[in-house]
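Action item from last week, closing it out:
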Amino acid sequence: MQTAAVLAKTCSLAQGLRDFFSAKDEEVLGIGYAAIAHQYGEETEYVNMRRLEYAFNRLFVGPDSIPAPPYASVYLDEEPLLMGKPSLEMRELLRSLNLSVPEGGEPDDFIAYELEAWLILLLCLKNEPSGEHKQCVLEAIYWLTEEHMGKWIPGFIHKAKQASASAEINLVLQGLEEWLTNSLQRSLYEKVGTVC
């Protein structure tokens, strides 16, 4: 697959994954899932949304202990607690993009916020075809993908796969795995101006 096509699919996966993980109700969960499933040619009209919502909540939300918390601090800190150093690092990145998380919402290192930051960095890269600012944006992308998400997402995927018996959740995890693999390719960002 050519770089432009890989980048387009990677952007679409990131948007679907962001929407899926940030879902607060069955409808939004379905929209996110459909966007991911579409990338793999999967039909969604026969998906049992109640079952998908149950699996989603059991794995990522609660109310019981969650097997695969979608927060970087859980995987990157020595003590797997929320709001650790990775959360503060993400807060700084978000602030540099003039963003902040909603008060009372998820911690800054929530997977949906990180995917959103990646998408915004791509937009910044698209709008900065050259110069010093472009280099700063690239460095932020490389930090986010290589030094941050690239280090915690594999553990998250592993835990979620171990705990999931849902074909739909496994498809989402496949999409997340593909997004991560693609986002780690530095050559991918050379085509941003023409695709995203």
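Closing note: The two ends are 16 Å apart (CA to CA).
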